[in-house]
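Contributing new records

If you add data, match the layout below exactly. Sequence lines come first and carry their own label; structure lines follow with theirs. Keep one chain per record. Anything else will be rejected by the validation script.
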Amino acid sequence: MSGIAASLRVDKWLWAARFFKTRSLAAAACAGGKVDVNDEAAKPAKAVRAGDLLRITLPRDKRIVKVLALADTRGPAPVARALYDDLTPPAPPRGRRAPPPYRPPGAGRPTKRERRELQRLRGW
């Protein structure tokens, strides 16, 4: 939290808060409509302030965060985690999957019947 300011570019804040590995990835996400600030689409230069609500679409999930503090430099993960409050609802529990059929190591190729059972289990 080196730079104390009233506002900061959203791409810079996303990079400092460790949502994206590089600032250019954060800017590309903003330009691509993957980031909303207070329910408005955010360009990379959009100013973000403490108290703003961000909706971020990441490659694997969506995050909803509230900005608590601003930082213009990327620091360690515990410092970055202190910049926001994660309001993302928990993911629904995943169903339990049946374990694959046991084949001892070195037993050779699966038979045609075993291959069909594997395909049925995997949903192919």
